[in-house]
Amino acid sequence: MSPLFSENDTLNKINTLAVINILEPVTKKLIIKNHLLAKMRADRALIVKAIKESDTYLTMWELFGKVKNFVEVTEFVAQLSLLESTGKIIYDGGKILWTAADNPKLKKLLKDSVRVR
Among candidates 67, 102, 88, which has minimal Cα distance to 80? Predict the structure, then answer.
């Protein structure tokens, strides 16, 4: 995996933080909240990508070994919990299985099929 941020990104972050410090407290809180939400989405995307690209089914800590340079342990566990509660992954004998319907053919089939009520 490539680094998440280049030198220019780091400089942009420093400049952004300097601007944030002169804003009103309410605006500052909103910006920080949005930044944290964006980081959580990025962490989740890295975890999902690692699950999908894996050749075998991984345990939680094998998966963490693949993303540990980018995601903190507490965030990793929280993201796995979120993925499990939304039905995108399940645990089978300690292994993580991807169960979300993201296959393009399956999506088309579900979209075009007749709904039964």
Answer: 88
Three-state DSSP class for residue 87: coil
What is the per-residue pLDDT across 44-74, written as a single tens digit (0 to 9) for each?
888 988 988 888 889 999 999 998 888 888 8
How many structural domains are present in the chain?
1
In a domain, 1, yes or no: no
- Domain assignment present for 103: yes
Structure tokens, 46: 């890295």
In angstroms, the CA 3 to CA 17 distance is 21
Range(s) of the domain holding residue 89: 7-112
* Ranges of residues in the chain whose predicted pLDDT is under 50: 1-3, 5
* pTM for this model (two decimals): 0.60
Residue 12 maps to a domain: yes
